[in-house]
Amino acid sequence: MLYVLVGIAGIFGALARYDLGIWIGMHVHTIFPFATLCINMIGCFLLGWLTMHIFKSKNVHPYIASALGTGFVGSFTTFSTFSVETVQLFQQSLYIYAVLYIFCSLFGGLMMSWAGFKIGARLHARSKAHQVQTQEN
């Protein structure tokens, strides 16, 4: 059952990445791989948030956590596309874009993950405090 849930969530993550990539491409016209960068930043934030808020909750079944984290977010983000696009930028002698892409992807991804962790931890703490307050009343 776990594999089925991860697979189904993976389908939705891949479709979301595809659709968002198309949408961004229609609105942002540049040589820079902006769509993949945005998608990966969203995925970094989302996984950080899920890790600290949703996955720490005792109410989330481990299968659901795996489906969301590994399935959806794992297929939504794309390290392989980032790598190929970086190589293509170097091949086209767009060295500044390539280095900027690497820098933004690595440091931006870390910052977005950190932001997801911080916001997720804060929401998780509020949720726990609310549960304790509700139980006391």
From TrEMBL:
Gene Ontology, cellular component aspect: plasma membrane
InterPro entries associated with the record: FluC
Organism domain of life: Bacteria
GO MF annotation, one: metal ion binding
Membrane topology field: Multi-pass membrane protein
A GO BP annotation: cellular detoxification of fluoride
Catalytic reaction annotation: fluoride(in) = fluoride(out)
Binding site for Na(+): G74, T77
Listed Pfam families: CRCB
Localization: Cell membrane
Tagged with keyword Metal-binding: yes
Transmembrane segments: 32-51, 63-82, 94-117
Alphabetized UniProt keyword annotations: Cell membrane, Ion channel, Ion transport, Membrane, Metal-binding, Sodium, Transmembrane, Transmembrane helix, Transport
Function, in words: Fluoride-specific ion channel. Important for reducing fluoride concentration in the cell, thus reducing its toxicity.
HAMAP family in UniProt: FluC
Protein family: Belongs to the fluoride channel Fluc/FEX (TC 1.A.43) family.
NCBIfam families: crcB
Name of the molecule in the record: Fluoride-specific ion channel FluC
Species assigned in the record: Weizmannia acidilactici
